[in-house]
From TrEMBL:
Residues forming coiled coils: none
Basic residues bias (residue ranges): 397-408
Region (Disordered): 360-415
InterPro entries (alphabetical): DUF5931, HATPase_C_sf, HATPase_dom, Sensor_HK_TwoCompSys
Residue ranges of domain DUF5931 in the record: 1-168
Full protein name: DUF5931 domain-containing protein
Amino acid sequence: MGIEGSFWRAIAVYRVASLAYAALLLATAGGYRRPLLGWLVLGVMALWTAGATFAYSVARGRTLLLIDLLVTMGCLLASPYVQGPEAGPGGVVPVTATWVGGPVLAWAVHGGRRAGVAAAIVISAADLWVRGLRGFDLLVPLNGSVLLILAGAVVGHVARLTKRAEERLQRAAEMEAAGRERERLARGIHDSVLQVLTLVQRRGLEIGGEAAELGRLAGEQEAALREMIRAEPSGTARAGLSDLGTLLRRFGSAAVTVSTPATPLLLPAGHAEEVAAAVGAALDNVRRHCGEGARAWVLAEEDDGSVTVTVRDDGPGIPDGRLAEAEADGRLGVARSIRGRVTGLGGTVAVTSVPGQGTEVELTVPAPSPLPGGPPYSYGRERSPGDGGGRPSDVARRHRPGSRRGGIRRGGDHG
């Protein structure tokens, strides 16, 4: 039952204690014209206390809460017949006494402070009608009504906060368990599969020929597998948002270096997938037009309410007019796969190319404002296997000192 179960047990204890107090008042206090009828009402209260305690322990719903409220009001409205018409103006406590607070607390725990206040107002109206016969001074009953309303509001608020805290604790425990499982799997994979792939890559490069191609493929698979076991569990994403950095790091390989912030780079899930697809299309163009030996670098960063992904390569660059010519010939790799995706998200695409010095494709899309990823992003290590790491800006200066953003150059995307 968790923390919420403790609230329901406390309500059950309150009902029993209030029932005992009402019985004590009926047995010791005077002013009741029909005491036998009062004991009959008290018997109904006792039966409902037992029944409600059991019912709330099994299932809770609005029907049960409504019945609880109606039974309590029925017992309260029976007080004038037990006490006589002069008891209310005389200030005699109704036969239910404080037992009427039970359904208020139940509604508050189940539905929050608004439900608790609503139930308190209904009970208070019935109580004032019972006590207010013949127009006696309402100061004392009003104090009781105010206390009942405040109790419904406070208990409902605390119960709602407690439920949320319990849900967050549960999610944290699940994420911790998932993280431990990922670490266990990562250790097993590192001790077996990754070592074999590393060996195949090294030996293939040493042998050369067709074995070198096999080694290259083994290296790419090793990089992809390392990124898969290193990626954060899906539970780190917020509702409706995805970490673009996780999607981009899947492109990392021996030929592609990916640099992302150390903190999540959150975008709406659909937007993040579209940006990642555009980056994938740009990298496909690098392989197609620059050759298998071309290197590419991907840098993702957040700045001023937008996310920018820069893709660069060290290929031969794009000749002037080549993109327009490719689009006229119906080759729409840049126009649709890249520019079409990004502009559809309200973003922009800038292609900069210098013949003989490679190409840079800069994708910029608006981000949620403010980004729910916390404090400004700080750069972590690069995610390329076998690379010594370092800051993205350092990698940028090392490869393309003439860059406008100091980021990473990206390949000859010719459509």
